[in-house]
Amino acid sequence: xxxxxxxAAGLPFALVALLAxxxxxxxxxxxxxxxxxxxxxxxxxxxxxxxxxMPIFADFAAQTYARNMVDVRCRVSxxxxxxxxxxxxxVEAGQVxxxxxxxxxxxxxxxxxxxxxxxxxxxxxxxxQVSLLQAQANLASAEATLVKAQQDYERLKPLVASDAASxxxxxxxxxxxxxxxxxxxxxxxxxxxxxxxxxxxxASNEGKVESxxxxxxxxxxxxxxGTIRAPIAGRIGDTLVPVGGLxxxxxxxxLTTIVPLDxxxxxxxxxxxxxxxxxxxxxxxxxxxxxxxxxDGSEYPLRGRITDxxxxxxxKTGTLELQASxxxxxxxxxxxxxxxxxxxxxxxxxxxxxxxxxxxxxxxMQMVYTVGADNTAVQRAVVPGNRxxxxxxxxxxxxxxxxxxxxxxxxxxNGAEVRPEPYRESxxxx
Length: 430
Known about the structure:
Elements: H1 13-30, E1 43-48, E2 51-65, E3 70-72, E4 78-83, E5 90-91, E6 96-100, H2 103-128, H3 130-161, H4 167-225, E7 227-229, E8 234-236, E9 246-247, E10 256-259, E11 264-271, H5 272-280, E12 291-294, E13 305-309, E14 319-326, E15 338-355, E16 360-362, E17 365-371, E18 377-388, E19 391-396, E20 403-407, E21 419-422
Parallel strand pairs: 1-21
Antiparallel strand pairs: 1-20, 2-11, 2-15, 3-10, 4-6, 4-9, 5-8, 6-7, 8-10, 11-14, 12-15, 13-14, 15-19, 16-17, 17-18, 18-19
């Protein structure tokens, strides 16, 4: 205690006591000692644990792709005369993309059409059977001569027998009859030969007509192929062949590519253990809608569905590829983008879930602060399980009805009193 000044020796007792107490207080403040009321308990936010049904989600690395991408190629050789699209634009099926120099194809069509007309004329001439008709007329004339020779022979024979006509006349009639018979035989053979030749000629000309019709169809088809159209609808890429460039069906590179964007396809891979877990639950793949998380962390607003599963596990990675489709009406998604597929893989019934920020790490253990009825904080070890959004499912350490501290843990000591206020969840659930 500091000593009193000498001037205080003659002062009254009350004044001396007041002065002494003042000096004592000054000495206490000077020495760093604090006085006054006790510090108030820290303010914390508290929530009561209630069991709830929790869907369990998992994220998988994914990439978009176009399933039906088409390389636009030409079917005939020629030089590009026109280029009629804007790279990166949306094209419709059947839209004209390129026009080749059509003059060689038009000339080929005209030549094929002329050959067809010539063969059709030859066929018509063969069908009229002029040679056959002439042979048949010759046969009819020979048959008439034979009839007359037969009649002459029959008339002279009794006359010679009665010496009314000479034997010479009968011999001449007999010779004429034999000649007429041979002439008829020869004309019959000529009719048969001419008929066979005519039928052969008709068949040959019919074949030429069909061949020339095919040549005309092929020439017309090549003329049509000279105008290159979009085989499907989608977004078209840049042209790889300029105007004036030579194109060929056997060229290694296509003219351009077309990518259909609606729907957009997404592929992702799951582990063999995850696939087996679904199989044990009677599922080949997880059901429900899929959520696509884009590279910037944003969530694609439309939901997708798993449509295909490959037929074998990759032995190098131990994963199975799944393929999903997402509606893409605004063409926002493009092939080749990376992201994450979020899919519900399970559902926990009556699970205890708390906000992740309520759990603190202490060495190798996860701890939470619980608040008793007397508002005393008690530290408790927990065993967390799956994370669902901002929540953490607690497997062990908490039971329904427990009150836990969500915010303000850094100001809390084990066994100390706290001032709780209700915690309001920003998102009720996953």
